Structure formats: C-alpha cells, structure tokens
Write the structure tokens for this entry.
Amino acid sequence: MTELDSPDVTTPGKGRRFDRGFSAVVLGAGLLVLAVLALILISTGIEALPAFQHSGLDFILGQRWAPNNPDSPLFGTLTFLYGTVVSSLVGLLIAVPISIGIALFLTELAPRWLRAPAVTIIDLLAAVPSVVFGLVGVLVIGPALVPIYQWIHSLVADVPILGSIFGPAVNGNTFATAGLILAVMVIPIITSISREVFDTVPVADKQAAYALGATRWEMIKGAVFPHSFAGLVGGAMLGLGRAMGETIAVTLVIGGSTQIVANLFASGNSMAAVIAQQWGEASGLHTNALVGIGVVLFAMTVLINYSARVIVRRAEIRMKGATA
Amino acid sequence: MSVTTTPPRRQVDQLPDLSPAALSWRRRLANRGMMVLITACLLLAILPLGLVVFEVISRGGGVMSWEFLTADIPRNYRRVGPGMGAAVVGTLMITGMAALLAIPLGVLGAIYLNEYGKNSALARFIRTMADVMTGVPSIVMGLFIYVTWVLTVGEKNGFGGALALACLMLPIVIRSSEEMLRLVPDELRQASAALGARKWRTIVTVVLPSAISGITSGSLLAIARAAGETAPIIVTVGIIFSANVDLFSGGNTTLAAQIYRNASLTFEGAQERAWGAALTLIVIVLLFTIIARVIAARFALKER
C-alpha cells in the first residue's frame, strides 16, 4: 500500500455484517411493542375463554356476580362496568375544568418566573404513586367527606332527581370519593395535553383579538378555545382512559359492593378494583372470569386511548398547518 | 388597573377611549372573575398534593426508623411495631430488574424509530402503538404476566413482577428516548459518516453519548413510576414477610403492595406500617424524580 492510496470505504466485510445485525436488533426491539400488545390480547383472551363460554353474553350484560354459587357460578359484570364508568365520569367532570384552568394559567396568565415551579408541582402530582392516594383517600379524605356528603344530601333530599343522585351516605367509601381521587390523578395528564394544545394557537390570532379590543378572557374565548376544542376533547379522553384503568386507589375507596344505584354517595365496585380485591381468593373459573374482566377493560382502554391519540394528533396537525 | 389616566384628547373627538376603565362593567367583571377562577385552579391542584405530603410525613414520620426499614414484616397484622424490610428489599430488586430489562430494550427501540424507521409506515405504527401501550391499565399488564409467566413456571415470584413493571416501563422509555435522539443535531451524524464510520458506530459513539443525559432522565422517571405500581405486583408476586433476595424462586413483596394490604385493615399497627411504607415509597419516588429533573436541566441538549 503506497501512501497515496485512499482507504477503501466500500469493502464489504465484518463491519457491514455488524451493521446489518445492529439494524436487525433495533428493529426487533421496536417490534417488541407490537408483540407485547398482541400477546396481551391473545394470552389473556385464551385464559378468559372458559369464563366467556360459561356465561356467554351475560358476562357483559348480566348483573349477578356470584363466583361461589354452588350449582353454577354467575359472572355478570355489568355492575362493575357501571362503577367504572360512573367513577371515571365523576373524576372527569371535576378534573377537566380544573386542568383547562391550570393549562390556561400556565400558557396565558402566569408570569414567567412562576411557570417552572407551577409545572414542577403538576409533575410531582403525577409522580405520587396511586396507592398513596388510595391510602390517604381511605383513611383521611373518605371519613372527612362523610359529613359533607350528608350535608349535600340534606340540601337536595326533596328534589326529585338530585335527591336520588346525591342520596344518603353511610360511609366515606363511595363512587364520589373514588371520582374525587381519580380527578386528582388525571389532572396532570389532561393539563399537559391541554398545554400542548394551547401552545399551538397562532400568536397572530391572539394579537388580532387584542387589537379588536378584547379583554384577556374574551381573547381566550374567541381565539384560544375555538382553535383547541378538538385537542381538549382528545386530552379529556386520554384522562378517561387512565381513570378507567386505575386500580388500586379505586379499590381502596370505592367500597366494594356489587350494585347499580344512581346514588353517588353509595359504595360500588369497578372492573379493575374487583380483579384486585378477589384475586387472592379466586381459583378455577373465578380466576378465568377475573382475567376476562381484564380483557374487556384492555379492549375498552385501548380503544379510548387510540381514538384520543388520533384526535389530538389531527388537531395538532391542523393547527401547525394554520401557522405555516 | 384602577388608576385611570384619561388619554390626552386632541381636537378629533372620535378618538376612542382605550383604557380598561372604559370597558363596560359587565366585560370587566367577566374578565376579572375568570382570571381569578383560572388562578384558583392551580391552587386546587396544589391542595391535594400538599394534603398527601403533609399526611404521609406527619403520620409516617412517627414510625420511621432504621429498624422499620430493615426488620421483617410482622406476620400478625394486629401487632404494633416496625418492619418493612422485606418490602424495601423487594421494591429495590424488582424495580431494578425491571429497569435492567426495559431500559436497554426501550433505548434500542427508540434507536430504531429515530435512526432507521423515521417516517416509514411501520415506524409510525409502532409509535402509535407505544402511545397506546402507555395507556394499558397496570392491572391488565399484571394479568398478562400472570398468564404467560406465573402459569408457566408454576409459582408467583419476584421476576414476574419485574416482567410486568418492565412492560409498563417499555413504552415510556421508548417515547422519551426517541424525543431525546431527535434533538441530536444531524450535522453530528453527517460528520461521523464523513469520517467513514458505519451507521452502528455513528449511533453508538456519537448519537447515544450526545443524548445520554436526556435518556437517563427519562429512564429515571420511568423507574419512579414503576416503583409505585401496585396492581401488577399483587397479581404476580405473592406475599412474604422476611426478605427474599432470589427473584426466581419464592414469593416477594414491595412497599406499594404492603401499603395496599395494610391500608384497608382497621388495626392500628397495620395502619402505622402502611403510613411508614408510604413515606419510604414517596421518598424513593421523589428522589428518582428529582435526580431525573436535575440531570435533565444540567446536561440537556438545548432544543434548537
């Protein structure tokens, strides 16, 4: 080799084979996500099959849950579905306005020095483990709420519909308490999505609103909200998905009784909570049925999450198109 | 706002009064009221955080001691006195094993998405599915590992818990690492390629080192979240009272699982241990979160 020879950079050899191998490995790691999701559906689906076959459509539509029934166990999960939906909706009703408020505060109102600490507080709220919220919920917040529930009930007891929604409260473990705890847990998620969405509102629109003489609130109403409506819906749905799948905090504060009642101050159960409660003593078909609840829950949350992501992404793309 | 200065009037008398005082009382009230409400929302979020931190510190602080962190858990829930040693060991080992599984795989997956897949249909699909996977309820992840691991090996053990936590961490690590890889300037990759480095070499020696602080901080946040997970643990791990350092045989336990077990009991001793375990867990989680934020703030690549 003379000094003037340039290095041959095209030689196929060990390096190139290693390159191929490396790209195969990282592709494999990427595909792992798809593999795990598919495996979850297949493996839990197969495990739950005996329970599905045993109960048929009653698994979803039936209201009677009697796993230890001597003749033939009954696995109707409608009450748990009801509890999941009601506690999540109560959570969302509380969390969505507060989250939008926080996001507005952070994007439109807060002085620059306050933004970083405020974001840190929201992040810390997201970092608290759900079981700790459950612990505080069942031992401190629940008991403290009982007199408030009773007071609300006494206010509306004679009003026809409100009287049954805000019915009598026996103890602090209720749908309402579960919803309240869920609200605290989904606020960080909805806030962060709302902030992303508000950040994409074109500055020109806001300035135009001000130039027309709008106050700050009128600017938010006229320029920020119309732009971000779709994104906010997506954020709320992400929160809903999280709330429906939340297990331990709800298990601790929802009370664990199998009933469908309009009374928010009564105790109930949710799909995730019933799995956690009964897992320890379950065996045989009972275990299959609990796995079956998990399959239904998985399908529901994946569906909600997927559509929420699509909505948020579409909203963001539309917005970026507007600024360009 | 209340001090109003009338703008100097010129001869032109159509010049409108633009001062806030000129607004109708209705518009001014709506504006003021909404601004107060928006600010109150932040306070409403601080309230539960403050309450949780206060309760956990005031109730858990009393039982905290070296003995509490190391002694065995009493077999009788009624007994008053310390002991969370098995749970502390279990939390560290199970979460550590989950991190060992999920972080390398997650980073490799992120490398695929950002360096190889880019905007291809497959990469976009994986990205969406990773987002969907972050939303899978943790209890479902526990059931999945129960069916695939616990039923296969025939017993509940620590490794099952680690697998479940790893599945929960994987999408978080992938998405946060990908964000960080995206911030690495393309010029670095081009310079490396111009020097004759192959793609894997460019990635391993140039791209990864530039993004390592961000990847570390994202991974620490994922660890912090996994350490507090309860539902998959109670499904896959079983229960023990004295520390078990073997993840592959025999049951195990974590702080989160112990909080859950003890929280719903009415015995004073059990509740005290639940509060102590909550304090320990919160300290561990916050420590990881704070270290992650410090690393992110100190060494972050600035977005360009």
The CA atoms of residues 42 and 295 of chain A lie 10 Å apart. Chain A has one domain: 59-321. Chain A touches chain B through 91 residues (CB under 8 Å). The domain at 59-321 of chain A is CATH 1.10.3720.10 (MetI-like fold).
